[in-house]
Design brief:
Layout lengths: L3 E4 L12 H5 L11 E5 L10 E3 L1 H5 L8 E3 L5 E6 L13 E6 L18 E2 L5 H6 L2 E2 L1 E11 L11 E8 L6 E6 L6 E8 L10 E6 L13 E2 L3 E9 L2 E8 L2 E9 L13 E8 L9 E12 L1
Parallel strand pairs: 7-8
Antiparallel strand pairs: 1-19, 2-3, 2-6, 4-5, 5-19, 6-18, 9-15, 9-19, 10-11, 10-18, 11-12, 12-13, 12-14, 15-16, 16-17
């Protein structure tokens, strides 16, 4: 039986009038964020890495006026400039991004490993499936990409990751939005990264338009500010990505992960959503930004 953890709208009727204006800017005044933690591209605690906002703090009114706040039309705004703190030494790009936390603040579950905080594919060993917080999964989001970078090297300009499945060391999927400066519309594509031990190379799948550094304007592309939805589904070794837009047929792509190496023991998964800037060569204050209006996870 599937469990649904929806990032759904709700009203906080107990907000004191004296704090209403300040509280209204926090995404948690409208969304249940206890199922997530947030990385923002600042290092206020001075540990040399981007700050992590844990579940309870995030859901208790956290807001960053610059990088994470509630928009006037009721969406969660994520912003990541090129210059900013990174999450680790292995990461060279900034992000303002949610990380799935199935434990919902229950610190008895460790954040890493095959634990109640993470999930596994149904091709994983039975022991791992019993220990994990979920088996297989779906992430569905409705959003608009507001802005992408316009400076930097041609292969980095205009691209941003807006959704992921992250594993221990690899990423079964990263969904990219990309709009080049001279184009009116943007493209959508995704990367599938097998495990290193599988011996297979990363592949890219174009869904709307092209990922090319010199792509022409995609006639059926997605403009900045245009709302659309994506859904990532994993059942066993089948990865399905669906792009949904009002009044247009769905765009669907299926990737077979049978030889990607994710059926081994000890591998755990978690969803990510927000903006992961894929430009490190442009002006420091150049940035990416997206507004999410709905986000739902199911296991």
């Amino acid at each position: 039986m599937k469990k649904s953890l929806a990032l759904s709208s709700f009203l906080l009727l107990s907000i004191p009038l004296s704090g209403l204006v300040e509280a209204a800017t926090a995404p948690s005044t409208k969304f249940d964020l206890l199922n997530w933690k947030l990385s923002v591209p600042v290092d206020e605690d001075g540990n040399g890495k981007a700050d992590d906002i844990k579940e309870k703090k995030l859901n208790g009114g956290y807001v960053s006026p610059e990088f994470f706040y509630l928009s006037e039309d009721g969406g969660m705004v994520f912003k990541a400039p090129i210059a900013g703190a990174k999450t680790s030494k292995n990461t060279t790009y900034t992000r303002s991004e949610l990380r799935e936390m199935i434990r919902r603040g229950n610190t008895k579950h460790k954040t890493t490993g095959v634990t109640g905080n993470n999930w596994v594919f149904s091709t994983a060993p039975e022991e791992d499936q019993k220990r994990a917080g979920g088996v297989d999964g779906s992430l569905e989001a409705t959003l608009a990409v507001d802005y992408v970078t316009t400076t930097g090297k041609d292969y980095q300009v205009g691209r941003v990751v807006i959704g992921q499945i992250h594993a221990n060391h690899n990423e079964p999927i990263r969904i990219y939005y990309r709009k080049l400066p001279n184009n009116m519309n943007g493209s959508l594509y995704y990367a599938h990264e097998p495990t290193k031990k599988s011996g297979r190379k990363e592949i890219f799948v174009e869904m709307i338009g092209s990922k090319s550094n010199s792509a022409r304007n995609p006639a059926d592309g997605i403009a900045l500010g245009e709302k659309f939805s994506y859904r990532i589904d994993v059942v066993g070794n089948t990865l399905t990505v669906t792009i949904m837009r009002p009044g247009k047929p769905d765009v669907v792509s299926v990737t077979d992960m049978d030889k990607s190496g994710y059926d081994k023991g000890g591998l755990y998964m978690y969803f990510k959503a927000g903006v992961y800037n894929q430009n490190k060569s442009g002006d420091g204050d150049d940035y990416v930004q997206a507004t999410f209006y709905d986000l739902k996870v199911t296991h």
